[in-house]
Write a structure and sequence with these properties.
Elements lengths: L6 E7 L2 E7 L4 E6 L5 H13 L3 H14 L6 E3 L6 E3 L5 E4 L2 E4 L15 H11 L14 E2 L6 H13 L3 H12 L3 E5 L2 E6 L2 E4 L5 H15 L4 E4 L11 H15 L2 E5 L3 H13 L5 E8 L5 E7 H9 L8
Parallel strand pairs: 3-13, 3-14, 8-12, 12-13
Antiparallel strand pairs: 1-2, 1-6, 4-5, 6-7, 9-10, 10-11, 14-15
Length: 317
């Protein structure tokens, strides 16, 4: 569990005023009503764990902004090389290591770029540096909305270099009766019934499944974030989804944070965890207290199982 998140405290970040959780596990499923900060919580974990200096802060922020949020999370300044961020007194503490977001946003204010795309270009160009391009590839924050073929092609190439192609094909065979995955003429092709078919013809569920599997393989000894883990996947495959996540995360030593809106997905998580006798799991429920502040409760395996078996409404405890 080295470098895994065990405790987190969040101050003045997005929807969180003063928030903390402890006793986090290898696999953590996050539930709660809409607008309870499930994704914002994972973004805080991602920023806190991946940021070590100003350069990596910009990289992490761009990953989150490009992959998750169509709204501008920061303002990009026209004047010289100045940027101003909208994190007022924000602080993230992971495993007692403090990251003050304002430490990376200590700049002067000027006129923001009106065009967001030009702003992204400006900030990327500025933080490129001599022979040190800013790498905004994202292999850890996974969402159905951010799956790009070019990125998947790079991941498949990496799987081949690790000589794990047969393992990947075996999983795809179990899940979708797909014989093989390959990149042909710079396009992702899946072989089924002895014919190669474009990945795009298989629908979102296959692509999302593939993205999750690749993330687990390529982030050994690291942490991944699966936003709306069930998106695009048929509910009859939820058990298989959790079998893969629980088994591969254990084999590869990957910490997983996943969000869901689906009661069926939560019940599948329970069922497969029990079947595999997996104890390094948690269910995190986000809700609001009487002061309208977001709070979180971490249910360990035994507490989670007990709530499910008593037929409690697990999404909105």
């Amino acid at each position: 569990m080295k470098n895994f998140i065990k405790t987190i405290k969040i101050k003045n970040f997005k929807c969180f005023n003063s928030f903390e959780l402890e006793d986090l596990k290898r696999v953590n499923l996050i539930g709660g009503k809409n607008n309870m900060g499930k994704t914002a919580f994972m973004e805080a974990c991602y920023l806190g764990l991946s940021t070590e200096d100003k350069r990596s802060f910009f990289q992490s922020l761009l990953v989150l902004d490009i992959t998750r949020n169509p709204l501008v999370e920061f303002e990009i300044i026209e004047d010289s090389n100045n940027f101003e961020f909208k994190f007022s007194d924000s602080e993230i503490i992971i495993n007692d290591k403090i990251m003050g977001l304002l430490d990376f946003a200590n700049t002067l204010y000027s006129i923001p770029q009106k065009d967001y795309n030009n702003g992204i270009k400006e900030i990327t160009q500025f933080y490129t540096g001599k022979n040190k391009p800013l790498n905004i590839k994202n292999k850890t924050f996974i969402s159905l909305n951010n799956i790009r073929d070019k990125f998947l092609i790079e991941c498949i190439d990496e799987i081949k270099l690790q000589d794990k192609e047969d393992e990947l094909n075996c999983l795809l065979k179990q899940l979708f009766n797909i014989e093989k995955i390959d990149v042909i003429k710079n396009r992702i092709m899946l072989k089924k019934d002895k014919k190669f078919i474009l990945l795009s013809e298989f629908g979102d569920g296959v692509k999302h499944f593939l993205n999750i599997i690749l993330a687990l393989y390529l982030n050994q000894n690291s942490t991944i974030y699966l936003d709306e883990v069930e998106s695009g996947i048929h509910y009859l495959l939820f058990d298989k989804l959790w079998e893969i996540i629980l088994s591969l995360s254990k084999e590869k030593n990957v910490q997983v944070f996943a969000t869901t809106h689906s009661k069926e997905c939560i019940e599948a998580y329970y069922k497969v965890s029990k079947k595999l006798n997996e104890d390094n799991i948690s269910f995190i429920n986000l809700s609001k207290n009487k002061k309208d502040e977001i709070i979180g409760i971490v249910f360990d395996r035994d507490m989670f199982f007990s709530e499910i078996e008593q037929n409690h409404e697990v999404r909105v405890w």
